[in-house]
Amino acid sequence: MPGTVNLIAPGQVDDAATQARRDGRWAWLVRRIWPSRCLLCGEAGHLGRDLCAACTRQLPWNSSACARCAVPLPPLADASTRTCGACLRRPPPQAACRAAFVYGFPLDRLLPRAKFHGDLAAARLLAGLMAQACGDAGRPDAIVPLPLHPARLRQRGFDQALELARPLARALVLPLRPDLLLRRRDTAPQSRLDAAQRRRNLHDAFGVPSGAVLPAHVALVDDVMTTGATLHSAAGALRRAGVARVDGWVCARVP
Asked: Quick check: helix, strand or coil at residue 248?
């Protein structure tokens, strides 16, 4: 149900499947009563989503990308095994990364609504599209949203990564573990910094709670990936704490 927090503990996949079926029935009822409308242009929604057929055709799917950092690459017959030069020279801490889209229209209109304005309808739409893009990725034991620092969370009032991760976890019937990662420092906004400054800004920014029971394989969820500094810092903290494999699942990748 929209706005409901559903934390799924490890090992409770049966409960997650039950919740997903309930959510599916609820979504069907809601669509019967309130037909979907496109969040971008107001036309009738397509395939039950809040996005019309015309706007759906404009989605910039990131269909050919580096398997480690999701940077867009020229199309090839087999893009699933490709690694960019930067990741070959310096492998990142995440084992794999999947970005649903290249950042551009209409993502540049939808993502800011979810990230800065708390638009849960936009977040649910984007999470559904992410589920479509990540459904065939290596299945993790849990989904972990990249957290905001408590001071930033109080200021903003919501965590955009959690609002993406919650419906994504329900759609893929995976445990959601927002308790596994802490933001230790209230860092400066990454958008104001260059690549080197971003890395320094996020040094030791994340941590894992003492005594946390760690899954072997997790997928970190975030909204936009630019240089990858935030994802790398969070993945490194989880790896150092004992998580064997960390993947990244992001909504959009900046080329």
From this structure: strand
All CATH 3.40.50 domain ranges in the chain, comma separated: 60-253
| Architecture category of domain 60-253 in CATH | 3-Layer(aba) Sandwich (3.40)
Question: From CA 50, how far away is CA 84, in angstroms rounded?
Answer: 34
Instruction: Give first-to-last CA distance, the chain, whole Å.
Output: 35
Residue 118: which H helix or E strand, with range? none
CA dihedral 109, 246, 217, 169 (to 10 degrees): -10
Minimal CA–CA distance to 219: which of 124, 110, 131?
A: 131
Q: What b/e sequence results for 12-49 when a residue is b if at least 16 CB atoms lie within 10 Å of its CB, and e otherwise?
A: eeeebeebbeebeeebeeeeeeeebebbbeeeebbeeb
pTM as predicted: 0.81
pLDDT (mean) for 186-202: 60
Q: What is the mean pLDDT of the segment spanning 219-225?
A: 97
Average of per-residue pLDDT values in the chain? 84
φ and ψ at 93, to 5 degrees? -70, -25
205 pLDDT band (50/70/90 cuts)? confident
160-172 and 13-33 are packed helices; what angle lies between their axes, rounded to 10 degrees? Answer: 100
Q: Alpha-carbon distance 219 to 138, whole Å?
A: 9
Q: Does residue 83 contact residue 89 with C-beta atoms inside 8 Å?
A: no
How many CA within 13 A on the CB side of residue 33? 6
DSSP string, 126-190: HHHHHHHHHTTSPPPSEEEEPPPPHHHHHHHSS-HHHHHHHHHHHHHT--B-TTS-EE-S-PPPG
